[in-house]
Amino acid sequence: MVGNPSRRDHSDHASRSDRARPFGTRAGSPFAPTVDPGAMLDAVGVDDLESLFDIPAPLRFGDTLGIESRSEQDVVREVTGTLSRNDSLTEFLGRGHYEHYVPSLVDHLADRSEFLTSYTQYQPEVTQGFLQALFEYQSLLVELTGLPVANCSMYDAATALGEAATLAGRVRAVEGSTVLVPSYLRREFREVLENYTAGTDLTVETVGTVDGMVDPETLAAALSEDTAMVYAENPTVEGVVEEHLSEVGTLADEYGALFCLGSDTVALSLLQEPAAVGADIVVGDASVLGLPAAHGMGLGLFACREDFLRQVPGRLVGATKDEDGRRAYTLTLQTREQHIRRERATSNICTNQAWVALRAAIHAASLGPGGLLSLAEQCHRRAETLAGRLDAIDGVEAPVRDCHHFREFKMRVDPDAQRVAAALRSRGLAVHPLGADELQVCVTEANEHRTDDLVSAVEGVLG
Amino acid sequence: MEFDVPEHLRYAETHEWTDEHNGTVRVGITDFAQDELGDIVFVDLPAEGETSQRGNAFGVIESIKAVSDLYAPVVGTVVETNHRLRDQPELVNEEPFGAGWLVAFDPDEGTDHLLTAAQYREQV
């Protein structure tokens, strides 16, 4: 609170209060306790509210906020009207945002009031349920990555990548200061990574790829004693399933660099286990489970080797025993974090995505290991099937890359990708145009029912 | 409370002790420091061969309630670290001047610039 609210001009509000008075005066309402600021000020011996605050004049906002006052009903009508202007395109977009069906069970459990809290689980005595769910989320990541330590979330995949880089810069086992990223890395990830490394000794360099994959020979030429970390994705942002990850892991190891692999919780259910290909850190997006594709909100997964335990960013939930010897959960190793370690903390991030992680954990648990694997297999099969159907159309080559794909793939069209994307858009279908003659298409159970429409629309546009 | 301040050691104002012996300087934290920190749960020590300037942070010591940098009391090269602390960090609490030592330096200087036991006793 800044300044004295009674000084502000709220004529509209004041007149409504006057009208309301016959039903309960300020002092007399039996339902809403009201206080008399004057009596409180008298009690503490202060003349006015203003003297309780010591905010320098230049920092004060002296103007009115200029917010028009409207009734709730008016606001609902206006917002609904604005929302109705959204298009209703069926998205085949992907490229980092994936829509999977979220069982209603997830909403039902996650919306319980015990879970709908902005408070961190600092008090184990009152948050065992939430802590257990977060511990299970971590355990899920440990099983999927094969790495023994996982935190209970970062903001999103890009910040998790940034944290991986700064971890590489901190650990004693790593001497280098260059972070090598593949040329397919999304611009947004690159920018977040650059933000993280600004102000550290780390620099980011791009390594060329061959056929959309990290190429061991090209990587070997780029590696040096100065390399701190090598990053690759599986699947890549183009849906390509990487084929040389073991070689990447071995090469990184030879140069004393860490190997950081980007993936997601569905893909990890099917693809090679990161620990088995020598990954030291796994980052990525865990919100493929539990959340609809919101094109913004994410859930950063972060897992790593046990010897980096004290260097892990973010919150960790540990299992322990209570006074009576029963299994119990608590936030642990908090001396890494900012509220204790201050400027020497492992990360500037001092919050996380607990509720989103809860949703991801519930979704994963409701699918079970078999359900997760089946979902992942469908992600592979659907992409290959749709690519095959599009490839049969004259003027289309799909997929462009000759390899396995997961959820999405690139297709080459003749003659103009922008024109094709615009024509599909006018038929209610959204795809990514990339460059002059390529489109990227993503298919999951959420849009599979429109694949016939997509195929015939592409035929129509090119025919 | 009376803290142990052995007479034959030299002390840094930042509560490290040094023991110069046969050309190496062994370093630990004092009885007072371990008591202030509380139960030590982790000690992060440098690799052997690392060099250190006087006053530089050469490691980190972590207790259940605080994290502190360890400052090098002398200029020198790390020749040995106390590996037992990896599994038994509580040795720092139990025997701060004995089995709970941290690192040994091959020093490029003596320890005369450090506090004597009497001077350190004044400080704590």
What report would you give on this structure?
The complex is a heterodimer of chains A (463) and B (124). Chain A is α/β, with parallel strands linked by helices and 463 residues long. Chain A has helices spanning 11-20, 37-44, 72-83, 104-110, 128-145, 157-170, 187-197, 216-222, 245-254, 338-341, 354-391, 417-426, 451-462; strands at residues 90-91, 149-150, 178-182, 203-207, 209-210, 213-214, 227-233, 258-264, 281-285, 300-304, 317-321, 327-331, 396-397, 408-413, 429-430, 432-434, 438-442. Chain A has 3 domains: 5-78, no CATH class; 90-97 and 369-462, Aspartate Aminotransferase, domain 1, CATH 3.90.1150; 104-362, Aspartate Aminotransferase, domain 2, CATH 3.40.640. In chain A, 35% of the residues lie in helices and 15% in strands. In chain A, strand 7 (227-233), helix 9 (245-254) and strand 8 form a beta-alpha-beta unit. In chain A, helix 4 (104-110) runs antiparallel to helix 11 and helix 5 runs parallel beside helix 11. The longest helix of chain A is centred in the C-terminal third of the chain and has 38 residues, at 354-391. Chain B has 124 residues and is an alpha+beta fold. Chain B has a single domain (10-108), classed as OB fold (Dihydrolipoamide Acetyltransferase, E2P). In chain B, the strands form 2 sheets. Chain B has a 6-stranded antiparallel beta sheet with strand order 1-2-3-9-8-5. In chain B, a hairpin with a 2-residue loop joins strand 2 and strand 3. The interface between A and B is small, with 6 and 13 residues.
Which key features would you list for this structure?
heterodimer; A: 463 residues; alpha/beta; Aspartate Aminotransferase, domain 1; Aspartate Aminotransferase, domain 2; 3 domains; seven-stranded mixed β-sheet; four-stranded antiparallel β-sheet; 13 helices; 35% helix; 15% strand; globular; disordered N terminus; B: 124 residues; alpha+beta; OB fold (Dihydrolipoamide Acetyltransferase, E2P); three-stranded antiparallel β-sheet; 4 helices
